[in-house]
Amino acid sequence: MREVSSSYTVSLHYDRRLYRQDIAGSIAHAGMLAKQGIIAEEEAGEIIDGLAEIKAEIEEEKFQWRPELEDIHMNIENRLYEKIGDVAGKLHTARSRNDQVALDVRMFTKDAITEVVSALHDLRRSLVEKADANADVVMPGYTHVQRAQPVLFAHHMLAYFEMFGRDIERFRQAYDRADVMPLGSGALAGLPYPLDREFVARELGFSRISTNSMDAVSDRDFLLDYQSASAICIMHLSRMGEELVYWSSDEFGFIRLSEEYTTGSSIMPQKRNPDFAEIARGKTGRVYGHLIGLLTTLKGLPLTYNRDMQEDKEGFFDTHDTLLDTLNAFSGMVSGMSLNPDRMREAAQGSYVLATDIADYLVAKGMPFREAHGVVARLSDFAIEEGKSFHEIALDRYKKFSELFESDVLEISVDSSIAARDVPGGTSFSQVKRALADARAALEAENGQ
Ligand code: ARG
To answer: Is any ligand 1 atom within 6 A of the Cβ of residue 98?
Structure first.
């Protein structure tokens, strides 16, 4: 053989993580074989006790891992032989590694999703708490990174609350697709034994069994569902990370991140770099990569199992670890950040973000919106040229742009602008108050699930 690393086909260093699922699956399978009279009760008993011991050995770090046996399944099976002799061979009755690995990965995916949903829930709670504690803070809302209209900070936080709520939905859908028990499919064609597949499904907490053995051993869609939900979720986190990065800059100065989530510069003593937010933004690349990687691995595979599919795990585990850490970091960053409400209000006031409100003012006096838009565009150009804010322009100057202007135009303010947006989904104080109450109720409901 030419130079190929001896570990080329080995997956043990990463699929070791499936030991719990692998052992639980084997125990359920052995129990079912005995129940169906396919193996003797005592044999199943020996197998199950042996597997329980192996689990303890792994957890106590006494297990001798053997990479030459390639994967987690063979390591456990081999150890079972060492412990109980030839009876160990009966465990593999009516089972193939093809349906076994599908089972293990599905079980792992379900647990992974439960963890992610809980972390998303915590993050949503942090967002609501931060919004609640700063319910009267106003800031500019942006389009094109240009100050556009004043909004409540709470409204901005609740926008993320929505995104992470949709992420939870996507993960729940992914859970549902993973929640299918494949054992009993064998290598690909089903098995010539009187199996009770429903029993195994119940034992392992699956809600249903797979309906086609060929699909069951070759389907990894559930992982794609998980990976794509993860990619979308980390995209949301990355967008938020981007905002935290620039909000904490001197230019914005809206927030200060707590020290735990920043690091000093080795050379510039004044700096508090938003490393966690930046790294989260950066890690988005690998999570997208794992999704594309798996799609690409699967795209040319004929039915049914092909060894290529062993490549499904490493990226999946990495996505899971990355996403979970990132979610937890964001919960911490949101909870720990402090705001600079004066600076935020100043940014909302010190620019021309009230232009739309002035146009709406003219509309209320009967002018068509398009025309009002033109008037206020000219008014803004004038104000910018003069270096004046809208409040610093005298009424007779206003009247040169439109006769409809009266002295009350000078009453338009950041607060009146926000208060006016009292439409469901809008940023008015009362709408946001209601949205916060709804958000809290949604969190309570999620808690109960
Ligand atoms: N390590 C393999 C995987 O992850 C286990 C299944 C192997 N099956 C086989 N027929 N070689 O896909």
So the answer is: yes
